[in-house]
Amino acid sequence: MNATSTKQDIDHLNEFLRGERAAVETYTQCIEKFDDPQMKEELRVLRTSHQKRVTQIESRIRELSGTPDASSGAWGSFAKLVEGGAKVFGKSAAINVIEEGEDHGKNLYNDKLDSLTAGTRAFMIEQIMPEQRRTHDTLAALRRRV
Fold it and tell me: Which residues cross the membrane (predicted)?
C-alpha cells in the first residue's frame, strides 16, 4: 500500500469515525426523550453498536499509523442542532433525526467503499457495514412503533 492510498484510507475512516461519534451523541440525546423502558433499552443497544464501531474504526486508523479524530465534526454539530429542535417537537421527531443519520451513514459507507484499499474495504464489509445495516433496519422498525 502506498502512502497516498494509506492517507486516503485514513481520511475516509476519520470521516466514518466522525459520523459514528455523531450517532452516539444523537442516540444519547434521543434516549432521554423516552419514558418507555423497552424503547430506551432498544435505543441503548443501537447506541452501543455505534460505540463499538467507534472503537473498531479508531483501531483500524491506528493500524494504518493514523490519528483518529476526537470529535464528531460538522455532522455532529448539525445533529445536535437538529436534535435540539426535535426536543421541542417530541419523540417522533427525535427518531426521525436518528433515522436520517442512519441513512447518511449507510450511504456514506456505500459511496466511499470503492475508493478504499483492499484491506480497509474488507474491514468495512466484514466488520462495520453489517452492523450499520442492522442498526438502520432496527431503527426503521422502532420508528413504526413511535
Answer: none
Q: 9-18, 88-97, 113-122, 137-146: which has the minimum mean pLDDT?
A: 88-97
What whole-number distance in Å separates Cα of residue 81 and Cα of residue 37? 26
Grid coordinates given for 52: 463499538
Cβ–Cβ < 8 Å for 68, 58:
yes
CATH architecture of 3-145: Up-down Bundle (1.20)
13 neighbors 57 (Cβ within 8 angstroms): yes
- Give CA torsion, residues 133, 40, 78, 102, to 10 deg: 10
| Amino acid letter for position 25 | E
With H, G, I as helix, E, B as strand and everything else as coil, classify residue 116. coil
* Cα dihedral sign, 139-33-48-127: positive
Which sequence spans correspond to the domains of the chain? Answer: 3-145
3-state secondary structure of 69: coil
| pTM of the full structure | 0.88
What 3-state DSSP class applies to 54?
A: helix
Question: Taking 70 as the threshold, does the pLDDT of residue 101 lie above it?
Answer: yes
Band (pLDDT 50/70/90 cuts) for residue 87 is low
